Sequence to fold (365 residues):
Amino acid sequence: MPERNLQSTLNSVCDNGTSTRADVEFLLAQGDRDSTRRIMHAADEVRSRYVGDGIVLRGIIEFSNYCRNTCAYCGLNTFNTNLARYRMTREQILESVGNIAEAGIKTVVLQSGEDRDLDPFWLAQVIEDIKDKFDMAVTLSVGEWSEDDYRLWRQAGGDRYLLKIETTNPTLYGLLHPGMSFEDRLRCLGDLKSLGYQTGSGSIVGLRNQTCGDLARDIVFFKEQDFDMLGIGPFIPHHRTPLADEPQGDLGLTLRTLSLARILTKDTHLPATTAVGVAGSGDAVRSALAAGANVVMLNFTPPAYKRFYEIYPGKDDSAHSSGQIIKEIETIAHTLGRYVSLSRADSLKQRNENMLQKQTLVREN
Ligand code: SF4
Fold:
């Protein structure tokens, strides 16, 4: 069998459709700086070709930190009784959405733990209010619910939904998520897609007992599922979880995972996640953007609540204004030869599918 070579394997992965999971696994395992740089460079070219140079901004509001689950990596897990819990009111949410609109951003992400006291009809009303008052895409990220609840929120105007698979290794998934099931997760993702949500998923990189083979399977799963968005970030230990003493996920491996997800999925929206910023030094967000990412999330949770939404420690709870943060991102964009985009940035997959359909119709006539 010929010896695998980084450049030929990278070419094969970039060359649509000829790659195998083994190729992706091989590339993920190349931990030296030069290999990481070359994989990132290839991903950046794919990003430029399929997504363009805009760095899209989204505003996120973490409106409730109640959660019934016990995910082993998450500081919001229900056993963390040291955490003060909050749930924002409808008025507080609308005020925060107003701040996002004022900053010129056209997408709001409403995120919470899996808050079982959250009334689905209340959330539907919040979505309707946002749609009435603002010209804004609404993304939900509130966990696993019934198909009827997902339908209710879709009919209220929900455009997008984020539900990370975290890992496609069912054994690892079971260990990390006591009381939850991998099949339920897949069922939820299937429901969301069939209801017409622009659907996002994603994974954690650097968990104990997670191999490059597992990460390669994640990336191939993302490609097969054709998700509209993917959030990929490193594992960061939280002191009030069972994984408190585990080492943090490796930033280089996270960047290679992000890059290979870009190369395989082409036109998916990929954020430079907050976790990447926490795990790396000051320019980790820049590195993620250079590795294929095209989205940055800005946190508009009111300062009084922000520090209590601690999935992992180290999240930015500074009082920097959105204007200051947007300026910082503009500076980063400038150094990368790119620009900040305030567009809605709907799914590129749906747009490209529509274009293909139109081209086919024109040809047929
Ligand atoms: S990851 Fe989500 S579902 Fe799991 S404990 Fe944290 S907030 Fe709850």
Observations:
- The chain has one domain: 19-364.
- The mean pLDDT is 93.
- The two ends are 50 Å apart (CA to CA).
- The pocket of iron/sulfur cluster is lined by residues 67, 69, 71, 74, 76-77, 113-114, 143, 311 (CB under 6 Å).
